[in-house]
Design brief:
eleven-stranded mixed β-sheet, 13 helices, six-stranded antiparallel β-sheet, alpha+beta, disordered C terminus
C-alpha cells in the first residue's frame, strides 16, 4: 500500500472517529435533557467508588478486603442499574457503542498514519555452524517437551544442554564453557532471567543470541515479534534468520533484558512461595507493602533528576508503550538507547482513585526516560542516616529473579550490545499503535488531500 493510500485511510478513519465521538457526546447531552445532570454525577461517583474499592481490596485484608471487592464489582453494576432505571436503557448502550467505535477508528487512524519503522540494525543472518542451546525443561510448564524443542533443535544441527529441574545450575558458567568449546551461537529456551544470563555471555563474546519463547510470559520474545504460541518456530532462525542489534541493560554489573523492579513488586518476588502461587502471594503481601509497613520508600536519580518517596519503581531496557503500572504493554523499540522509568507513589484511597481515573496524568505516577538511574532506600531509612554507615541493601527483581543488592543500585544501558538472531518471518513483528492522541486525530480529520493525492 502506498503512502498516499495510508494517508487516505488515516484521514477517513480519523473522521469516523471524530463523528462517532461527537455522536456519543450528543447521546449523553440528549439524555441529560431527559434526566438532568444528576445521573451523570452518579456515574462519576460510581467510578470513584469502584476505584476506592479496588484500593481497599489490594491494600487491606479481612472484612475490608471483602468490602473493597464488593464495591469494585458492585459500583459499576449499580451505575448501570441506575442508568437503566432512569430511562437510559437505549441511550446508555448506544453511547458506549459509539465511544467504542470512536476508539477503534482512532487507533486505526494512528496505525495507518505511522510510517513503518524497521529496527536500526537489521542484516541477513549467517546460519551458525556450532549453535549451542540451553533449555530448561521446567520452564513454561514443560514447553520444551510439549513442543519437541530438543528433537527439532538437534535435527537442525544444534547442541542442546538440558538443565536439571530442581537442581541449582550455574547457567553463566555453562554458557562460558560452551563458548570455550567453540560455540558460534548461544540460545535459551527458558524464562527471561535465564535469557539475560546467557545474553550477557553472548554479548561479551560478540556472538549471536537466539531467543526461544519457552518461558511463562516471554516478554523479550514478544517485543522481538517472535511466536509465543509455538516456540518451535523460533528455531527457524537457525536456517533462515536475520540479525538485530538490541540494547542490553546493566544493573550493578548484572545484565537484564527486560526490567529491574524495586519496592513493592521486588519484595513480593523475594517470598519463597511466589514461584508456586504468584497471585495468592501478591494478594497476601500487598496490604503490608502498600500500607507502608513492610515496604520501604525509594529515592532515585534519573540522569540527575530526583524521584523521591516511591513505593515501586520499574526500570526497563527501553521504555514500554503504556504508562500503566499493571500492564505496561510492549516496547516499540529495543535499540533506542534509553531506559524507561515508571514510579508509583500512592498514599491512600484518594490517590488510588485518582490514579485509576487519570492514569498517566495522575501525580501518583512518574513516567520518564533516562540513560542512568541510581536507586537507594528512602531518606527516612536509618541505615543511611549517618555518614560512614554501611550502605543499605534493598530487594531487587531482575527480569523476575529475586536478588538483594547494596545501595545505591545503578542501572545503565549498553546500546546495541547484543546480536539477536530471529526468524525472517515473525508473526508478532507488527507496528505499534502510538498512545491515543485526540489532538492528532482532529488534525488528521481536518487535513485535506494534497494536489497529488486522490480526493
Amino acid at each position: 500500500m502506498s503512502r498516499a493510500d495510508h494517508s487516505d485511510r488515516a484521514r477517513s478513519l480519523a473522521r469516523c472517529a471524530v463523528l462517532a465521538a461527537a455522536a456519543a457526546v450528543l447521546v449523553v447531552l440528549l439524555s441529560l435533557l431527559r434526566t438532568g445532570p444528576l445521573i451523570i454525577l452518579q456515574g462519576l461517583a460510581g467510578l470513584a467508588v469502584c476505584a476506592v474499592g479496588a484500593w481497599w481490596f489490594l491494600a487491606h485484608r479481612g472484612v475490608v478486603r471483602v468490602l473493597g471487592g464488593a464495591l469494585a464489582v458492585g459500583a459499576p453494576a449499580a451505575v448501570l442499574a441506575l442508568f437503566l432505571y432512569g430511562g437510559l436503557w437505549f441511550t446508555a448502550p448506544a453511547g458506549v457503542a459509539l465511544w467504542a467505535g470512536a476508539l477503534a477508528c482512532a487507533r486505526g487512524a494512528l496505525r495507518a498514519d505511522r510510517r513503518p519503522e524497521r529496527p536500526a540494525a537489521v542484516r541477513p543472518g549467517r546460519p551458525p555452524r556450532r549453535p549451542v542451546l540451553i533449555m530448561n525443561p521446567a520452564s513454561g510448564s514443560g514447553k520444551v517437551a510439549r513442543f519437541g524443542l530438543v528433537e527439532r533443535a538437534e535435527a537442525l544441527g544444534a547442541r542442546v544442554l538440558l538443565l536439571t529441574p530442581g537442581a541449582r545450575t550455574d547457567v553463566d558458567e555453562l554458557a562460558r564453557k560452551a563458548v570455550a568449546e567453540g560455540a558460534d551461537l548461544l540460545g535459551v529456551a527458558g524464562g527471561d532471567g535465564t535469557q539475560a544470563l546467557v545474553a550477557a555471555v553472548a554479548a561479551e563474546h560478540d556472538l549471536p543470541f537466539l531467543v526461544i519463547s519457552a518461558g511463562t510470559r516471554n516478554h523479550l520474545a514478544m517485543d522481538l515479534g517472535l511466536d509465543r504460541s509455538d516456540p518451535s518456530r523460533c528455531l527457524d532462525a537457525l536456517t533462515d534468520g536475520v540479525e538485530l542489534r538490541v540494547d542490553l541493560g546493566d544493573v550493578a554489573g548484572r545484565a537484564f533484558v527486560n526490567t529491574v523492579s524495586f519496592g513493592v513488586y521486588a519484595a513480593i518476588v523475594q517470598r519463597p512461595e511466589y514461584r508456586d502461587a504468584k497471585a495468592g502471594t501478591a494478594l497476601d503481601a500487598l496490604p503490608d507493602l502498600l500500607a507502608g509497613g513492610a515496604g520501604e520508600r525509594l529515592d532515585a536519580l534519573a540522569d540527575g533528576l530526583p524521584v523521591t518517596g516511591q513505593q515501586a519503581l520499574l526500570v526497563s531496557n527501553n521504555p514500554y508503550s503504556a504508562a500503566d503500572p499493571l500492564e505496561v504493554g510492549r516496547r516499540p523499540r529495543l535499540d533506542g538507547g534509553e531506559l524507561g522509568v515508571l514510579g508509583i507513589r500512592v498514599d491512600g484511597a484518594a490517590q488510588a482513585a485518582d490514579l485509576a481515573v487519570r492514569g498517566a496524568l495522575s501525580p501518583a505516577l512518574t513516567v520518564l526516560t533516562s540513560r542512568r538511574v541510581e536507586v537507594r532506600a528512602g531518606a527516612g531509612d536509618d541505615s543511611d542516616s549517618a555518614a560512614g554507615t554501611a550502605a543499605a541493601s534493598i530487594p531487587v527483581a531482575v527480569d523476575g529473579e529475586a536478588l538483594t543488592l547494596p545501595t545505591p543500585v545503578v542501572c545503565t544501558l549498553r546500546p546495541r550490545a547484543l546480536r539477536v538472531l530471529v526468524p525472517r518471518n515473525r508473526p508478532g513483528a507488527m507496528d505499534q499503535v502510538p498512545e491515543l492522541n485526540w489532538r492528532r486525530i482532529a488534525t488528521l480529520a481536518l487535513d485535506r488531500p494534497g494536489p497529488g493525492a486522490r480526493a
